[in-house]
Structure formats: structure tokens, C-alpha cells
């Protein structure tokens, strides 16, 4: 069950990143984050009300609140890093965030078997290679590396926090709702501040009404990925769930290949293959 839900998280996060990347080509990244998360929060609000999940309110919601604060910071840092540096460096480097939940799992006493350790090593290597790392060319700015590491730390922290935010299905709906509300509030404040400083808040044509279905997909896929990851972490080792859920860059690369006809470099194809081998080792270990 852990492997199934964790890989579902990878699929959903990978597709959400692909959709978000397409949208940011014509809409400011902060606007994409705020609108997509706002739609997700509205849908979750209906679900929470319909299921009576308010009764699950308790101290664990602070984990969801913290995840909601960290998430936008990580996304902003990630988008800025992508704008400043080569994606072939930024994307695989950001996956280092998996060290946070894996470290938490080890701290809590989890001890993966030899086959699972091998699977973790192979899968992480595959994810890094699937990003198409650039070993030559111009040097990368120190600011780009710093922003990418901030994003990686943020993504990994969200992984760890959301896994602790609930213990029941109803509680998970409420936790995700709180996380999304916090995302929207934090992102909205950042968007307002950016607008006050002269930053672009909307595309030149005004509010992107025609992009609402795509924005809704990005927001709902992201929140669903958080939910499936939480389930995966609750039903199995965090060390395994976190690594399998971190395979989303492979999904993004394959989506770009399938929908945009982007050619995978040899190193990316090799990375995708290694990620699949690592997944099989983790699933059978």
C-alpha cells in the first residue's frame, strides 16, 4: 500500500509541475500558485463541510499550518532558481529535499532492509540523472545554488510535516484544507507585496479566465498528491514513501516528452530507467 500511494504522489506531483510549468510561460508564477491553491482550498472546504471533518480539529493541525507556510517559500525559491540558472542543474538538485523526510524516518527508528537501501540509492540517483544534470558549461551563480537548496529544504520539510498532520481520513481532509488556506494567505501576501513593488501580478491580457481549468488541475493534483503521500507515510516506512514520492521529476520529463515532443537526453533516459529499477527494489524489499 505504501508503494502504491507514494508512486501515485509522484505521478500527481509530476503532472502538476508539468502543468504549472506550462502556465508560468504566460502567467506570473506567484499568480499560478495563488489561484491554483485557492481553487484547491475552495474544493477542500466543500469536502470538509460535507464530511464534518471540523470535528477532527486538534494540535496536529499546527503541522498542516507550518506546511502551508513553508510550501510557498519553497515554490518561490524554486521558480527564482529556475529563472536564474539552468534547469538541468536546478531540477535534480532540488530533489535533495528527500533527505529531510528520510532523516526523520531514521531518527524515529526506521531501519530499511538491505534491498530497500539499495533501492533508495538507485532511485535517488535515477531521479538526479533524469533531470539531465549539466556537467560542463558556464558556472552556476552562488545565488542560484542557494535558492535551489532553500527550495529542496522546503519541499522536504513539507513532506515531513504533512505526514504528521493527521491520523484519520477526515483529519487528512481538514489538514489539507488548513495547509491550502495558509498557502493562499502566504502567497497572496507575497503577490500583493510584489505588486506594490512594481512586479507583474497578472498577464498583459488580464486575469487568465481561459486558464482556469488548467489552474484547477494543477491545484487539485497537488493537493491530491499531498493526500496520497500522507496515506503512504502512515501505512509504511517514511524512508520508502519519501523516496518513491520524490520520483515526480521523472514524470515531468516524460510528460514533456509525450505532450511537447521534447527529446530526452541519453542521461535522462538512463536516469528514468534507474528510477524504475529503484522503485521495483523498494516495492519488493
Automatic annotation (TrEMBL):
SUPFAM superfamilies in the cross-refs: Multidrug resistance efflux transporter EmrE
Pfam families documented for this protein: EamA
InterPro entries: EamA_dom, EmrE-like
Keywords: Membrane, Transmembrane, Transmembrane helix
Transmembrane segments: 6-23, 30-55, 61-82, 89-108, 114-132, 144-163, 169-192, 212-232, 238-260, 267-284
Origin superkingdom: Bacteria
Domain EamA per the UniProt entry, residue ranges: 3-130, 144-283
Assigned protein family: Belongs to the EamA transporter family.
Record's protein name: EamA family transporter
Organism of origin: Streptomyces coacervatus
Lineage of the species this protein comes from: Bacteria, Bacillati, Actinomycetota, Actinomycetes, Kitasatosporales
